[in-house]
TrEMBL record:
Subunit: Homotetramer.
Residue span, Arginosuccinate synthase C-terminal domain: 178-396
Organism name: Rhodophyticola porphyridii
The name this protein goes by in its record: Argininosuccinate synthase
Domain annotation Arginosuccinate synthase-like N-terminal: ranges: 6-167
Gene3D superfamilies: Argininosuccinate synthetase, chain A, domain 2 (3.90.1260.10), HUPs (3.40.50.620), Single helix bin (1.20.5.470)
Length: 406
């Protein structure tokens, strides 16, 4: 790959991406444009701007993408009830395609010929960033310093930073206890004190949720309104997607909801242990399944559940912009046409449980399921023929097996 002239760097303002900024300047002699996304990680982003200015960034982009992130990425994913390996709500995975999208768009606007990221060569994020970038611009160059440089230890990184007058936070001079990624949907903590999956995670790892044992002793009830599969209100108050998710995060964090200790299979082949906190997302998933239970036909619901693991795997592996993900999304979105109504939930000691649901689009018929007189809505005698037809093949198989044994 020929040396780039201008690179757009996904920049957090932290030690690693600051080192990458300087490394790109010294290694390639190129201009570096920084892009910092506010995805609701809860950090002040102005220090990142000042640091990029100090380090000679050619141009600095800081963007509030919380609404776009929630509306165009998180909500479509939640229409599918997506869980990777049955448990993980994909908080890190779903943020990467949006960051990559903006990297490519900024590169085009700035006349840059490359983009760069700070993901290591061991993880999933390098795959997610790069597959998304290539899907949006097949000619873009992607630079992954962790796969190129010889700064292979924390000590070497610190030495490089000191030689190049890169500010180092005091807590970065030693080994960090664990690595954290955060956005509006979740926090992810990995490494160091978490690397042995046999050891219980220290409570200080958790940042967004109180310990369920310390959560309020009184349950809290909330109502979430849905329109066509997307949450639109809490307790009757209409909210934007990001505002609604933020409110659910507050509620979930208060009640210790959304903690997950997971050993997962990375796309690159190894297993890793992560501690995830997804308070608002956990409530949202429960509520969405609650409203689907009365508005979604059995056949559509069961098919969705069959498609979901494949859909979740595509997001986890970085194929958000693939044709197969878009095909599945079209089917999922079609299923949500009548997923409209309200769900009542009980939040208590780490759990969010549906306790009521109602909708003008409901398929639930009390007249058909009642144990009381159904006034002719359902003729129980019809079940006899239904059972006989479904039993026919089983009877034939049993008869054959009995004959052969005899």
């Amino acid at each position: 790959m020929s040396a780039p002239k201008k690179v757009v760097l996904a920049y957090s303002g932290g030690l690693d991406t600051s080192i990458i900024l300087k490394w790109l300047q010294t290694e390639y002699g190129c201009e570096v444009v920084t892009f910092t996304a506010d995805l609701g990680q809860g950090e002040e982003l102005e220090p990142a701007r000042k640091k990029a200015e100090m380090m000679g960034a050619t141009s600095i982009h800081i963007e509030d993408l919380r609404e776009e992130f929630t509306r165009d990425f998180v909500f479509p994913m939640f229409r599918a009830n997506a869980l990777y390996e049955g448990l993980y709500l994909l908080g890190t995975s779903i943020a990467r395609p949006l960051i990559s999208k903006r990297l490519v768009e900024i590169a085009a606007a700035e006349g840059a010929d490359a983009v760069a990221h700070g993901a290591t060569g061991k993880g999933n994020d390098q795959v997610r960033f790069e597959l998304a970038a290539y899907a949006l611009n097949p000619d873009i160059k992607v630079i992954a310093p962790w796969r190129e440089w010889d700064l292979t230890s924390r000590t070497k990184l610190i030495d490089f930073a000191e030689k190049n007058q890169i500010p180092i936070a005091k807590d970065k001079r030693g080994e960090a206890p664990f690595s954290v990624d955060a956005n509006l949907l979740h926090t992810s903590s990995e490494g160091k004190v978490l690397e042995n999956p046999a050891d219980e995670a220290p409570d200080y790892v958790y940042q967004r949720t109180v310990h369920p044992e310390d959560a309020p002793d009184t349950p809290e009830y909330i109502e979430i309104g849905f329109e066509k599969g997307d949450a639109v209100s809490i307790d009757g108050t209409a909210m934007s997607p990001a505002t609604l998710l933020s409110r659910l995060n507050d509620l979930g964090g208060k009640h210790g909801i959304g903690r997950l200790d997971l050993v997962e299979g990375r796309f690159v082949g190894m297993k890793s242990r992560g501690i995830y906190e997804t308070p608002g997302g956990t409530i949202l998933l429960e509520a969405h399944r609650g409203i689907e239970s009365i508005t979604l036909d059995r056949g559509a619901a069961h098919l969705k559940d069959e498609l979901m693991p494949r859909y979740a795997e595509l997001i986890y592996n970085g194929f958000w912009f693939s044709p197969e993900r878009e095909m599945l999304q079209a089917a999922i979105d079609h299923s949500q046409a009548h997923v409209t109504g309200t769900v009542r939930l009980k939040l208590y000691k780490g759990l969010a449980r549906t306790v009521g649901r109602w909708s003008d689009h409901s398929l639930y018929s009390e007249a058909h399921v009642t144990f009381e007189d159904d006034a002719g809505a359902y003729d129980q005698k019809d079940a006899a023929g239904f059972i006989q037809l479904n039993a026919l093949r089983l009877k034939l198989i049993a008869s054959r097996n009995r004959r052969l044994k005899g």
